[in-house]
Amino acid sequence: MSQEEISLKVAGMTCAACANKIEKGLSKIDGVQEANVNFALESTKIKYDPSQTNTQAFEDKIEKLGYKVIHEKAEFDISGMTCAACATKIEKRVNKLDGVFSANVNFALETISVQYDEKNVKPYDMIEAVKKLGYSLIAKQEAKEKMDHKEKEIEKQYGKFLFSTILTLPLLWTMVTHFEFTSFLYMPDMFMNPWVQLALATPVQFVIGAQFYRGAYHAIKNKSANMDVLVALGTSAAYFYSIYLGWEWVSTGRQGMPELYFEAAAIIITLIVLGKLFEVRAKGRTSQALQKLLGLQAKNARVIRDGIESEIPVEEVVVGDTVVIKPGEKVPIDGEILEGRSALDESMITGESIPIDKTVGDPVIGATINKNGSIKIKATKVGKDTALSQIVKVVEEAQGSKANIQRMVDKVSGIFVPIVVLVAVLTFLVWYLIITPGDLRSAIIPLITILVIACPCALGLATPTSIMAGSGRAAEMGLLFKGGEHLENTQSIQTVVLDKTGTVTKGEPELTDISVTNNFIEKDVMYYLGSAEKNSEHPLAQAIVNGVRNKGVSLNEPSQFEAIPGYGIRAVIDNKEILVGTRKLMDQHSINFKNALSQIEVLENEGKTAMLIAIDGQFAGVVAVADTVKETSKEAVKRMLELDLEVVMLTGDNKRTANAIAKQVGIGHVIAEVIPEQKSAEIEKLQQQGKKVAMVGDGINDAPALAMADIGMAIGTGTDVAIEAADITLMRGDLNSVVDAIQMSRKTMRNIKQNLFFAFFYNTAAIPIAAVGLLAPWVAGAAMAFSSVSVVLNALRLQKVKI
Predict the structure, then answer these.
(1) In sequence order, which residues have a C-beta less than 8 Å from that of residue 644 and are 6 or more positions away?
(2) Among 268, 391, 583, 735, which residue carries the largest CB count within 10 Å?
(3) What is the CATH number of domain 510-626?
(4) Would you name the residues annotated as active-site residues?
(5) Distance between CA 720 and CA 135 in Å, rounded?
(6) Sign of the alpha-carbon torsion through 78, 82, 88, 94
(7) In this structure, are residues 20 and 133 in contact, taking their beta carbons and an 8 Å threshold?
(8) Where do the domains of the chain lie?
(9) DSSP string spanning 691-705?
(10) Could you check whether 4-70 and 510-626 share the same CATH topology?
């Protein structure tokens, strides 16, 4: 069964119950394997079988449930069209791209307008697709950037709040003058008239409050309940009961002023709209980190095509282009230096504050800053393939994913609203039948108050806002969590297992010693050694090759080469079999090396990696390579131990060398001489002892162990395979990032627990107070609005967190 995944932005959700309703509705569609709705992010992620269903079905279902799907929009000018058939061809091609909802070509204006999902397709993909048809798409340059969905929502909520406030203030005035301590305030008689109050309250109830009625209608129609149901029920009870009281007062010709509740209904709606305004503003700030990342990208690139240098939008750069970057400019795309040298500030990507020296052949990352020299680079990755785009994608996915604690909260909030309605009805009956028999006035106030104060908005926002803020802040620190569940699980890590080469050490070893025996000539041994290691990708092999070349020895190409993981290499040079590696490798081939054991021991005690050399079945000598420890490793291990973490070093190196390195950085537990296939088994052994294990590595041979561990952390300077297998990517290549990731997880989970406390405290503690009649409806509205805002503001503290 094939599987595809798509993300849709959804507008109109008012609380967690809305999210649950959409989730359930989408899950019922044939072919949908999984549907997750993130209330805070206002998005849904759907995994489905494309042979059974499609994106349109999801949109139709969401709109049927009473919500709206929001699309990203891109507009391009088209060049190369000659007739309407060209327009049709372009339209069809763009519409076929995964993530494109609709593409409309205007042949007369030579433009195309595309609605798309930015997580699945980028403008670059559209440009490339059309280019293959023989046409060109040129991104429109607008003087003023379009307001995004969030800004429009803020503007809309502000307008509603302003309108609602103007009409509600006179009603609030009438309520305030009822208190003894404010009786001196002047109140125009007209505001005391029931019909004037009705005229003021009605637009608030049915114009501003229309959103709650619409939401409640769709919820009830789909056999569910949400915040809209509670607000609509509560305010309608106050509004229509006030009409009844006003009509009764007029028809009976009573004197004085009836005690109406128009102001309660109006104030509740106004306060909730104010709360939504604050909430939308604050929720917009939770994705600030992502906006910062997106803002890092250069807008234009200076390319050389056919010998002519020209400036083009970065979306139009293609792989293979030669790009010129002058001092002080941003690198527009990922590439490799063809000409020149410079220092590049990579802090925005890796968190490393010191500029990195780069020269011909070195890779450069898009969005980094060229500090001094002018350089020319060859574009190797563009569009969605660049490092920055991949980082943004990982952060988006993390922010859109659900932590396990969120799934539990979703279940609670799903049944919360029906229970609240039941409690409110029971409270009304107790007041009406027992406490104040027949007194509708006394019974209806607790009913309204319970319905209003128990809205589960804060409950739905508690977890996702913290995940969004926490993962965004982590990204700024160079920590990429691949999902909310990893951000959650990292807090419980008890044991950290560190790979040695490239993780604890720099992974840039140097050739330090070479000695020969059995009448071999040193220059000959170096020739065979360097030639044999020439095709190996292992850092130790590269150190040997560089060291031999630096001694002026020319190398040859091996006719045979075999890397033996965990043992060494076997190669054939000039018809001679060359073996370079461990004692085990020599034993396998019956090579006698006993005379060199004392020398090997001395080298290993110095923290060097000693390797044995055999030529045509005869022991030829010993070569030693030293890999220096990273300057930050000792400090990082100390921080881990201060957090009561057990620190283990896992390496394929021999015990003496491993122990020497471990001693330098303060690691007490070493597992050495482990071949790559056994690394994951060692992780499993630790897990069988009941420990939650994090594995930190950077190489291909670490991938199985990274996948086996409870949390896999890949050093971002390592291989793509390791990064793919890991749950967290540490962009800095610094072990301090391991501690930062654990502390960020702990702080985020603490923040989530605080939010859940706030949410449950408001929603549950206030219900009994409301039930006994000690809470006015308008106070309930204020408390409910404040609960959502307080939760989001608390989550925003994570954006300022320092570790």
Answers:
(1) none
(2) 268
(3) 3.40.1110.10
(4) 499
(5) 34
(6) negative
(7) no
(8) 4-70, 319-381, 479-505+629-744, 510-626
(9) --EEEEE-SGGGHHH
(10) no
End-to-end CA distance of the chain: 45
Token digits of residue 414: 């799903």
CA distance linking residue 398 with residue 402, whole number of Å: 8
Dihedral of alpha carbons 13, 18, 20, 23, sign: negative
Helix (H, G, I), strand (E, B) or coil at 789: helix
- 145 falls in which pLDDT band (50, 70, 90)? very low
Q: Is 319-381 a CATH 3.40.50.150 domain?
A: no
Q: To the nearest 10°, report the CA torsion of 145, 150, 155, 159.
A: 160
- What ranges make up the beta strands (E) of 500-575? 510-516, 560-564, 568-573
Condensed to tens digits (0 to 9), the pLDDT of residues 270-296 reads 888 887 787 677 666 656 666 666 677
Higher pLDDT, 553 or 398: 553
- Segment 22-79, tens digit of pLDDT: 888 899 899 998 898 887 778 888 888 888 888 888 888 888 888 888 777 788 878 7
Q: Where does 253-316 have alpha helices with state H?
A: 262-286, 288-295
pTM: 0.69
Q: Which CATH architecture has domain 4-70?
A: 2-Layer Sandwich (3.30)
Spatial CA neighbour of 687 closest among 491, 495, 485, 488: 495
CATH topology of domain 479-505+629-744: Rossmann fold (3.40.50)
Query: What's the confidence (pLDDT) of residue 719?
Result: 47
Examine the pLDDT at 93 and tell me if it is beyond 70: yes
Q: Any residues with CB less than 8 A from the CB of 692 and at least 6 apart, and which?
A: 489, 492, 493, 494, 495, 710, 711
CA separation for the pair 693, 738 (Å, rounded): 13
